[in-house]
Records
---
Amino acid sequence: MGARLYVIPASHPATTAELMLRHKGIAYKRTDLLPVVSKGVVRLAGFPGITVPALKIDGSKVQGSRQIARELERLRPEPPLFPADPELRAAVEEAERFGDEELQHPLRQLLWWAVKRDKEPLRSYSEGAHIGIPIGLAMATAAPIIALSARFNEADDEHARRALEALPGLLDRVDEWIAAGVLNGDPLNAADFQIATSIGLAMTMDDLRPAIESRPAASLAKRVVPDYPGHAPAVLPPEWLAPLRGDPETSPR
Ligand SMILES: N[C@@H](CCC(=O)N[C@@H](CS)C(=O)NCC(=O)O)C(=O)O
C-alpha cells in the first residue's frame, strides 16, 4: 500500500494523521511543507482543498484528519481506530468531532499570535523536518508567511483572548471524556489521536502549560505525543491569562 502524507511540521492535525498511519502499521513517505506554501503544493498535488494533513494512499487522495481516520479504517480495519460497541463509537466520534471543530483552531490561533509577536520559536517547531531549504533561510524569510498565516487563521488580539477564555471549558470536556473512559483507554482510538495532538501543541507554549499539566488531559498528551516538537516561551499579556488561572473577573476588556 503506497502512502504519502503532506504535512506542515508540528501541525497538530497532521501529527494526528501520522499517528494513525503508525497505529495501523502503514508505511508512508512524508512531504514537509512550509505554511502558506503548503496551500499551493497540495492543490498542485491534486487535492481539492488547501489544508494539511493531505494523504495519497492506494491511488486515492484524502484530506482532513477525520476523513483520513475513516479511509485508514476502511483500507486496514485492524487494529481499529473506532470501538465496535455502537454507544462507545458514537461517544468517540463526538469527541473526535469536538477535537477537530472546537479544540484545534483556538490553539492554532494562540500559536500564530505568539509567533507573530516573536518569530524565533518557529525554528523549534521545524526540528527534524525536511522543508527543502535550510532552516536559517526559512527563518530569514518567515515574516510574510507569519503575517499571512496569522491573517488566514484570524490570530488577532480579539480571537486570542476569546481562545484563552474558551480554553478551560475545552480542557474540562477532555478531562470528562477521559473520566468516562471515552479517551485514554486501551486501545487508543481516533479521538485520542485527534485530541492529544492539540493538547500536546498547547503544552509546548509556556503560557498555557501551567493550566494543563496537572490535568488528566496532560496524561493523554504525554502518552500519545511525548515528544511534541516546539517550544514557545511566555509572550501573552499576563492579564489575558486570567481565565486560565480561574479568575476571569480580574480580566476586564
Ligand atoms: N480541521 C482540519 C484542519 C486542517 C488545517 O487547518 N490545517 C492547517 C495546519 S494545522 C493548514 O493546513 N493550514 C494552512 C497553512 O497554514 O497555510 C483537519 O483536521 O484536517
---
Amino acid sequence: MGHTSRSMEDSGAVCDSMNCGDLAQEDYVMSKYKLIYFNIRGRAEIIRYIFAYLDIKYEDHRIEQADWPKIKPTLPFGKIPVLEVGGLMLHQSLAIARYLTKNTDLAGKTEMEQCQADAVVDTLDDFMSLFPWAEKNQDVKERTFKDLLTCHAPPLLKDLDTYLGDREWFIGDYVSTRMFKNTSTCI
Ligand SMILES: N[C@@H](CCC(=O)N[C@@H](CS)C(=O)NCC(=O)O)C(=O)O
C-alpha cells in the first residue's frame, strides 16, 4: 500500500540495548506510546486511527470521568488527549496526529498536499470545536447540538462535497489524515 515511510525506529519497533534492557521487544513497543483520554472516541479517535493504520502499538489508556478531577492538575495544560512518549507529555490532538504522520504519506505526499490535508482537517476541527461538551445546562447543550447538526453541518457537508467534486479522495489518490479526522468527527 506504501502508506508508511515512517522508520522502524520512529514506530517504536527498534530495541537498542540502552533503552530496552531485558524487555521483550513487544514490551518496549507497548511502552513507547501511551495515549491518555476518556473512554470515548472524541478527540483521541484520530490518533487511534493513525496508530491502527500505521500498525504502531500503543497503550490506549482510558480514564473514567470520576477520576478526571485528580488527573487534570497533573497534566501540563489540564486537557486530554495527551500522548506520553520518551518521557514527554505531548498535548493537542492535531499536533499529536501530525507528529505521528510526519514523513508518511498520511500527511500528504508533497508540501502542497500537506497544506491541503491540514486545511481539510482544520476545517473539520473548526466544526468540532463548536460542540458544547462542557455545557452544564442540559437544555442549552441539547439545543446547541441540534442547532449544529441542523444549521451548521449541512452547509459544511455541501462545501466538502463541492471541494471533492468528481474526485475519489480529497487530496491526491490515497488515504490521508483528512480521512481520519472526517471519520472521527462523526461521533
Ligand atoms: N484543542 C485540544 C482540545 C482539548 C480538550 O478540550 N479536551 C477536552 C476533552 S475533548 C478536555 O480535556 N476536557 C476536560 C477539561 O477541560 O477539564 C485538542 O484537540 O487536544
